[in-house]
Amino acid sequence: MSEAAIHSEELTALSFEKIKKKQRIISFLKGMLFLMPSIVLFSIFLFYPLVRTIYLSFFLTDASGTPTAFVGLDNFIQMFTSPVFLQSMQSTFLFVHYTVPGTVLIGLFLAVIANEKLKGIGFFRTIFSSTMGISVAAGSVFWLFLFNPTMGWLNQILGFFGMESIGWLTDPNFALISVSVTTIWMNLGFTFLILLGGLQSIDSYLYENADIDGAGYFYKLRRITIPMLSPTLFFVLTVSLINAFQTFGQIDMLTRGGPQNETNLIVYSIYQEAFMNYQYGTASAQAVVLFVIILILTLVQFKLGERKVHYQ
Amino acid sequence: MNMPLSRKLIFYTLLFVSALLVFAPAMIAFMMSFMTNQDIMAGNMIPTSLTFDNYLAVFDRFPLLNYLANSFIVSIVIMIGQLILCSLAAYAFVFMEFKGRDVLFFIFIATMMVPFEASVIPNFQTIRDLGLIDSYAGLSLPYFAMAFGTFLLRQNFKQIPKELKEASEIAGIGHFKFYLTVVLPVAKTSLVTLGVYGFLTSWNMYLWPLLSTTNDSVRTVQIGLKQLQSQEQLNEWGVIMAGGIIVVLPTLILLFLGQKKLQQGLAEGAIK
């Protein structure tokens, strides 16, 4: 009697284990079923290209992009000794240096003044976010006219004040700045929208308390708004940095990398090397540099962000 | 909250001046699209007469309707693809428990570090080798899977009470049915947010359509605008601006309608 009971107990324990294992496999398969579409596409269009780009960077290729000869690090050595590429790197970093602080600071200013409870504020919010709906191609066309040497408004305004015309897109001293201004304008809408969202999620109770203590406007801005906004600011900064390194459309529309390669930013340089000169190997080497830059930036930002950002 | 009048005045001044500066490039383009060529060539800032000819000319001389239709199809396809893939993935991360889930989640985060622009060479070769150059599939497929969208929906799905899932399990409702009948309807708002965002960014794509289209049959409106600009560069600014205005109109309308939701949704996905 008791022997039989023990036996059946063992049996149920055993089958229980089995069922549990089976269930675990089933739930794994079910989970994969939901994730499979994303994983497959990420593999084809993201992870494979990553590996393939690194692979190609060690080869010479024919015009269709098939690797023909292994050249080791030659592509990289050639790249880092080429004055054109070094110029392109310098322009890229300068461009980032101009656009990122510009976008974030102006976006922050707009978000702060649009966060007041005033009549008709919705209208201003709509206007400030509008550039998010304007494509790179259309935005470039708009600015292309403003930059026009004779008819453009910018030179007309300069002329009105008796100043000499500027070749906004043709003068090597101005081209990168002109492209940067256009880029800041284009990215303003998105930055503004995110920052305004961040501002609105700050607890109004904090401000009420400060009001009772008689705190002034700028005191509140410095002591409450900016610290409470820091996670959003941090996010916006990361996104702007990564975006700046990936800039392409406005270069293609406004300057095509000129004058004298002044605005030949890295993505445009990759595009030219691969799809105009058919040098897929050296283009891939440049793409690897872009990968590494973005990787380092993201990691550094995560590390710094953890320490300095104030989370609620 | 009552603000003293002087402060109100300062804010309104700042708001007006900023709005004028931010909106000026688009406003000028809008004005020019109704100006005659003589006015523009003479450098007049204020038009002497208004005309609709530029719009007629741009539709007449360019397959603009064709481009618009292509952009609509591609943007809608990408939007739907993203909504399906992101919501499925987000569901798995919130409501399913299985081995390797956290590793997969980390992999999703890691995809955000890989810029599309840098992987464009192999992607072009893949699409070319699959024979998908000049096809809607080639234009849209690389954009279906999206980590940001998955995170955004995951945040929203998390707010659905776990008890609901438990109750449905007892009632014998499976994952897929729960996803379709409970989760998707409840998360309608964030699906709309993601949809608007997906449509906006797809409509505005530049580099990928430039590479993956070679003729007018599937070419999108952004690349059409680039061609318009490079062909007419020297003189007909009115026509170019009319083209530009038509290109931004759908996205601007969408943005104005969905601005509030977009702002809340994006902020949620960004911060939490």
Question: How would you sum up this structure, described in words?
Answer:
- The complex is a heterodimer of chains A (312) and B (272).
- Chain A contains twelve helices and two strands, in the order αββααααααααααα.
- Chain A has helices at 2-56, 74-81, 83-113, 121-129, 136-146, 153-160, 175-200, 204-212, 217-245, 249-254, 266-275, 280-308; strands at 59-61, 67-70.
- The mean pLDDT of chain A is 87.
- Chain B is mainly alpha-helical.
- Chain B has a domain at 83-271: MetI-like (MetI-like fold), CATH 1.10.3720.
- In chain B, 74% of the residues lie in helices and 0% in strands.
- Chain B starts with a helix and ends with a helix.
- The chains are: A mainly alpha (312), B mainly alpha (272).
- Chains A and B meet through α1, α3, α4, α5 and α7 of A and α1, α4, α5, α6 and α12 of B.
- Chain B: Keywords: Cell membrane, Membrane, Transmembrane, Transmembrane helix, Transport.
- Chain B: The chain crosses the membrane at residues 9-35, 72-96, 103-124, 136-157, 178-200, 237-257.
- Chain B: Residues 68-258 form the ABC transmembrane type-1 domain.
- Chain B: It is a multi-pass membrane protein.
- Chain B: It is found in: Cell membrane.
Q: What is this structure's SSE topology?
A:
The complex is a heterodimer of chains A (312) and B (272).
Chain A: H1 2-56, E1 59-61, E2 67-70, H2 74-81, H3 83-113, H4 121-129, H5 136-146, H6 153-160, H7 175-200, H8 204-212, H9 217-245, H10 249-254, H11 266-275, H12 280-308
Antiparallel strand pairs in A: 1-2
Chain B: H1 5-32, H2 37-41, H3 53-61, H4 64-95, H5 101-111, H6 120-129, H7 136-140, H8 147-158, H9 162-170, H10 175-186, H11 188-203, H12 207-212, H13 221-232, H14 237-271
Helix pairs in contact in B: 1-14, 3-14, 4-8, 4-10, 4-11, 8-14, 11-14, 13-14
Keywords (chain B): Cell membrane, Membrane, Transmembrane, Transmembrane helix, Transport
InterPro entries (chain B): MetI-like, MetI-like_sf
Membrane topology (chain B): Multi-pass membrane protein
